[in-house]
Amino acid sequence: MYSKQSPHIITLQKGEETYICQCGKTARAPLCDGSHKQVASVRPLIYKADKDLSLAICGCGKSDHMPFCDGSHNK
Ligand code: FES
User: Fold this and answer.
1) Ligand 1 pocket check: which of 3, 60, 65, 75 to mutate, most ligand atoms within 8 Å of Cβ?
2) Which of 58, 29, 23 is nearest to 41 (CA)?
3) pLDDT in tens, 32-75
């Protein structure tokens, strides 16, 4: 999941809900594919958009604000 040097960009519409992987085992990064069931106590982040927006999800694994990109991939 953290094999990129840039973020994954996902676009959501107001009211849309998405499940962001937090276990790192998903095969469809950055979204959950149910792989967390192999890792006890790790669950996806459920994010519900309060407006139309784009999210930058960390693809490098260096962010201090997981699962979101904080620009650390540029360091
Ligand atoms: S992609 Fe990891 S901090 Fe931006």
Assistant:
1) 60
2) 23
3) 999 999 887 889 999 999 999 999 999 999 999 999 999 999 98
